[in-house]
Amino acid sequence: MVNTENAIFSSYKRDPNLNDEIFDKNGNVIEIYKKLLKLYGDHSINDYVNLNTKAKSSFFNQGITFQVYSEKSTQEKIFPFDLFPRIIAPEDWEIIESGSLQRSKALNLFLWDLYHEKKIIKQGIVPMELISSSINYLHQMMDIDPPGGIYNHISGTDIIKHTDGKYYVLEDNIRCPSGVSYVICNRTALKRALFGVFNHYQAHTVTNYAENLLDLLESVKPKGVDVPNCVVITPGMYNSAFYEHSYLAKTMGVELVEGRDLFVENDFVYMKTIQGPQKVDVIYRRIDDFFIDPLEFKPDSAIGVPGLFAAYKKGNVTLANAPGTGVADDKAVYTYMPQIIKYYLDEEPILNNVHTYHCSRPDELKYVLEHIPELVIKPVDEAGGYGISIGNRLSKSEIEQVKKQVGQNPRKYVAQPIMSLSVHPTYIDDTESFEQRHVDLRTYTILGKDKEFVLKGGLTRVALQKGNLIVNSSQGGGSKDTWVLKK
Amino acid sequence: MLARVANNLFWMGRYIERSEHIARYLNVNYFSSLDAPNEISQSRQFVLRSMLFMVGEPENDSKKKLNEEEILYKIGLDPEFSYSILNNVKSTRENANSARDLISTELYEAINKFYHFVLNYPAESFMKQGLFDFTVNITEMTSILRAKLRGTLLHNEVYAIIMMGVNIERATQVIRIINSKYNDALNAQGSYGDKFSNSYEWSTLLKCAESYDMMKRFYKKTPTSISTLEFLILNPNCPRSIMNSLNQVYNHVKVLDSSKKYNKNSTAFLIGKVRAEYEFKYIEEIEEDIQSFIENILESLVKISNKMEKEFFDY
């Protein structure tokens, strides 16, 4: 139990084995949450139920939803939002921000090297096999110099707080990391519902994301362009992240285009407007590599632009992120991050890496096969939390099943010790009370030509099912507003 | 603005306007028939046929007995019937979705509420006792949408495209309503004491276009065939008239390409030409052959729409 007279926390069940972000080991409220808890204590649980319903319908009416596909029909769902915010202290944030930035920069240099001289491989720091067997390594990108020297303009870093109180990176996302629109919507929703609490805390704003994104995208314009014309490209309105695409276009004040709105002539890209063709210089693309240009990649892609890659190769258009970044956010590359950071930046990693076993190495494969119940087994090239097996939740026959899969295709899997994500009190609809739920944090880092930006906040994702460790929205995760306190 | 998105916004405007006219047509015809002064106008079969005629699905078998609940469901909430209010509202939102980055948050939120209202309206209660509530809500929500259009969007090309859609659709729907009620007035003839020119149907027609009060104010007399048609077609100050709609379309197209209004192949030129034709028409000319007049104007509106498509949306 917890040491607080707070009515809404009277029935809060605290598991002392978990790292609760607002209660310490003895059940006392942690300093930065004291005021918040007092303010929330002014409400009864009924007030809370009402506020929660209102916040939900506000999301629904604003159409802040995502689509869930099932066999019969497509359903519109609200991304579940929790009214109890997460607070990050300035000293913690310093580590997170500098650590995220460090990783993004190192990955950018790594990508440049991979698509140019491959020094890191020649020097034997990263094995060639890791790259050559990756489907995300694009030979078409060899020797291309992306404008401004930037590959991963936008990076999303998934970070957890372990029981030892330290921050660990679980994953780098440098293809099309999503979710930033929810960071901003969560803030708006919380302000609407409980504006009073903001008077008592000095939290950094998150609404400056779009202006910074546009600024940095403009900084990587192609050579010879004075005022660049930026656009956001989306697969279309039936894409599950369409809300975010339209949100970003709207807040940056640029056009949201689909592949069919663009065409390429003499290696320049144009969009079809009511006043005729208009040249496009910078494309923030939310389409995967293999779909951007049917002439160069998947020939049956209906959402891409024929000739786009040729225009890119000529340096007439900037693509953000650059094609071929996927090779570096692969879960197998992840394990080399400490060495990669050291090699390019000559720095020690600020954020910890979770120890990872490569099933491609015979000795490590042996260890993995013998210790499955203590490990998380992940396929290296899947996103969205698919294909993950958590060892201590598997039955005997499931363990055998996993063993067989891993044994058949060891390159496809890595394994990590089961990390215990910190927990945060989360309002649960079914029980109408607060319960402990596991959370992680995705930060957003933008790199431009000689400038950079880390959003002071991030997406705290919550695994809504009790005990569940997978927080992805496609797996039924929710989210929380995240406050980074000013110093 | 992207050509594809412009096309979607144009149709968003049309679908908003279309849902409103269908809803009001159902409401006005149904409720004014309840205490109509003559037997035919009062008959439920007559009203149901009129509704089908208006949505372009006339029942040709004059002996067939129509089922009220079926017809109301079909026009209101049938997902299989492309002209149903439900499908119009769905299309409104779908078009708005694709242009969500261009329209205001306020407008989008209003469209979204509109959509959820219609989508979640229980069909059973709509058919049995919800007709009034449902249709009144539709007309009120479309008024809100018009206010959000006017008040929360920059009056630039995005606004111009949407308003062209709204006004072309308004002219189209009003002329369809005129056609339908003209047809009703012909059918209701001969029942006792009611001649064509003084038919009760003219008042109903004006109410369908929300112009009854304006018309009374203007003529200070009971509506007749000639005064009603003159008011709804030619009066430039009646916001629902064909003339007014054409004037609006003309003003908005100039925002899109002010340079091309004298180019004989432009949309602006065509609209100007059609508009000028009606500006100098008098009602007696029209009355001689109302049927061909209605056909002509529908044809002109289709021509304008096609021309727009070619000039602005074709890609």
Automatic annotation (TrEMBL), chain A:
Residues 85-463 form the Circularly permuted ATP-grasp type domain. It comes from the Bacteria. InterPro entries: ATP-dep_Glu-Cys_Ligase-2, CP_ATPgrasp_2, UCP005522. PANTHER family: BLR5612 PROTEIN, SLL1039 PROTEIN. This is Putative circularly permuted ATP-grasp superfamily protein. It comes from Saonia flava. The lineage of its organism: Bacteria, Pseudomonadati, Bacteroidota, Flavobacteriia, Flavobacteriales.
From TrEMBL, chain B:
Pfam families: Alpha-E (PF04168). Residues 1-313 form the DUF403 domain. InterPro entries: ATP-dep_Glu-Cys_Ligase-2, DUF403. It comes from the Bacteria. Signal peptide: none annotated. This is Putative alpha-E superfamily protein. It comes from Saonia flava. The lineage of its organism: Bacteria, Pseudomonadati, Bacteroidota, Flavobacteriia, Flavobacteriales.
